[in-house]
Specification:
The protein is an alpha+beta fold. The chain has four domains: 138 residues, Ribonuclease H-like superfamily/Ribonuclease H (Nucleotidyltransferase, domain 5, 2-Layer Sandwich), CATH 3.30.420; 96 residues, Taq DNA Polymerase, Chain T, domain 4, CATH 1.20.1060.10; 121 residues, Alpha-Beta Plaits (2-Layer Sandwich); 130 residues, Orthogonal Bundle (DNA polymerase, domain 1), CATH 1.10.150.20. 50% of the residues lie in helices and 11% in strands. The protein contains 21 helices and 14 strands. It has a five-stranded mixed β-sheet, with helices on both faces. Strand 7 and strand 8 form a beta hairpin. Helix 4 packs across helix 5, helix 6 packs across helix 20 and helix 17 crosses helix 18. The longest helix has 35 residues. It binds a DNA duplex through helix 11, strand 10, helix 16 and helix 20. Its EC number is 2.7.7.7. It is an enzyme of class 2 (transferase). It catalyses: DNA(n) + a 2'-deoxyribonucleoside 5'-triphosphate = DNA(n+1) + diphosphate. It holds the Pfam family DNA_pol_A.
DNA sequence: AACACTCGCGCC
DNA sequence: AAAGGGCGCGAGTGTT
């Protein structure tokens, strides 16, 4: 049962069972709570506009259909990438009206003097858009897979909102201790922390004059007059240099990053009541990976993990998929040899024999095949791969070739790569054309694998979410890794749920396949102990 | 003053 | 000869 839903700013809204009449309610959260036991699939324009308020009112839902994300997936598949994806735009297209650009949401327009205020779409309009989308899905070559994609993507919006609502445990006190230990006391505004300033002073002393270690220009100039020609100021390049400024400079760079990315200012902005609440953007990456729009949740440095501590009497269940991308490739390509190796817990060890007995060689070969790498031993190892695992090899080669020719590629469930830009088309027929073509080939080569891996991870989370007992909560997700916060006595049940979810995600995407997707969960009280 | 871009580096 | 995919975010730098 689909039920279209709109909300207004007063906490009310409209509901419309797709097979019924629209009805206005004053208390939307109460109405949703009442209907939820019948497990409707809620249809809304954009979860981010609706679901946070429901969560704040203590209401969670099991299923939804996100019209905006579905529209984006459909448009891309239909070769209409970049057309406005909002529900307003979808509705306007259906009625031959002027199509509003994305970002012109009605609420963002109300203070514009000469622009007439655009009315929010009603539940009837949403039902109409849904019917159109379902029909377009049916017309696709593989509607079943695309329906799974839409369901997984929509479930992702629920999870993202819930994780933003619940937050990841974050001990301010432990964080403060760590910052004090590494950087010194919190500085007054605009000043460098003491330990950072000391390192900056050491850099200047080593050069014999003041140098701002944050300035690439000054560093290159200072090294040049010291007789060292640098192409960049990257750490990896600096490490090759023999000069007394290098050691304090490397230490400075590491701490400066910590200070600006995860220091006191960051904590003031993002940590409240012992929780780090990130803003996830579902489908924010073209490959379908999530992005964040603030808080940098997907880039928490390893050194910060000691700050993530379960509440008293609770545990963190941390699980990551081992070697997800090569397994995805094995399953997609239907390469029997690779799939057999991917039936083992350590795929690379299982492959080692084929690559001269070295596990590392197997790893380089697989990564080069998926990323388009060609340096070092890669060409030699790729030749082995072509010989031993021809279907897997051909699968990524075909994707690369399509990209080089400017064609579209798709993930397993039907997410479509962006088309080449006009700039690329101009470039590819010019003197640097071969390079532009190769660059795009690397992108599409990786896209088919990365996007399918993202789909597997989404499916895993959607299933896991449904298996979690109250009051366990998903609190973190990072591409192929999930974290659940739960009472200690639920740890075993959650661990089992993770394994079940991995198996089920594999079945949902690939049906019967010899490929295994190991998802080992560990129970810890502190994230730092998870690896 | 405000914005856009590059560089560098953290994560996968 | 060499050629590695995807992001976010900050400071510095350049442009308007």
């Amino acid at each position: 049962m689909y039920v279209a839903l709109t909300s207004d700013s007063s906490g009310g809204g409209t509901l419309r069972p797709v097979e019924g009449q629209a009805r206005r309610v004053d208390d939307l959260a109460a109405a949703v709570r009442e209907l939820e036991p019948r497990r409707p699939r809620w249809v809304w324009a954009d979860a981010r506009q609706v679901y946070p308020a429901l969560l704040a009112a203590g209401v969670r839902v099991a299923r939804c259909h996100d019209l905006t994300l579905t529209e984006a997936l459909l448009l891309a598949h239909e070769g209409r990438y970049g057309e406005p994806r909002s529900a307003e735009a979808a509705h306007a297209r259906l009625h031959g009206l002027p199509v509003p650009e994305d970002g012109d949401e009605p609420t963002a327009r109300q203070d514009t003097l000469f622009e007439p205020e655009r009315a929010e779409l009603g539940a009837d309009a949403l039902a109409e858009i849904l019917a159109d989308q379902l029909a377009r899905i049916e017309a696709l070559p593989d509607p079943g897979r695309f329906r799974l994609l839409v369901a997984a993507e929509s479930a992702g919006t629920l999870i993202a909102a819930e994780m933003g609502h619940d937050g990841m445990p974050w001990r301010r006190d432990v964080h403060e201790e760590l910052l004090a230990e590494l950087l010194g006391p919190r500085p007054v505004h605009g000043m460098r922390p003491a330990k950072l300033q000391a390192l900056a002073d050491q850099v200047s002393a080593a050069f014999g004059h003041p140098v701002n270690p944050d300035s690439v220009q000054q560093l290159v100039k200072a090294f040049k007059s010291a007789g060292v020609a640098l192409k960049t100021t990257r750490s990896s390049e600096l490490k090759q240099v023999d000069h007394p400024a290098v050691a304090p400079l490397l230490a400075y760079k590491e701490l400066a990053r910590l200070y600006s990315f995860h220091g006191w200012v960051w904590a003031d902005q993002w940590v409240r009541e012992g929780r780090f609440r990130a803003e996830y953007v579902v489908g924010g990456v073209v490959s379908g990976r999530w992005a964040t729009s603030g808080g940098g949740a997907l880039q928490i440095p390893k050194v910060m993990r000691k700050v993530v501590v379960a509440d008293e009497g609770w545990a963190l269940i941390v699980a990551d998929a081992a070697q997800l991308e090569p397994r995805v490739l094995a399953a997609m390509a239907g390469d029997r040899g690779l799939a057999t190796a991917a039936g083992e817990i350590d795929l690379y060890s299982a492959l080692a024999k084929a690559f001269g007995g070295e596990r590392d060689n197997a790893k380089i070969a697989m990564l080069s095949a998926m990323y388009g790498g060609t340096s070092g031993d890669a060409p030699k190892l790729l030749a082995v791969m072509r010989e031993r695992f021809p279907r897997a090899y051909r699968f990524v080669e075909d994707a690369a070739k399509a990209g080089e020719e400017g064609k579209l590629v798709r993930s397993w469930l039907g997410r479509t790569s962006p088309p080449p830009s006009q700039r690329w088309k101009d470039l590819v027929s010019g003197p640097d054309g071969a390079r532009a073509a190769r660059d795009r080939g690397r992108f599409t080569r990786n896209f088919v694998v990365q996007a399918t891996a993202a789909e597997w991870a989404l499916a895993l989370m959607a299933v896991l979410r449904g298996l979690l007992p109250e009051p366990a909560r998903l609190v973190f997700f990072q591409h192929d890794e999930v974290m659940v916060h739960c009472p200690l006595d639920q740890a075993e049940q959650v661990t089992a749920a993770v394994a079940t979810a991995a198996t089920e995600a594999t079945r949902l995407l690939f049906g019967a396949t010899p490929v295994r997707f190991p998802m080992e969960a560990v129970t810890v009280s502190c994230y730092a102990d998870a690896k």
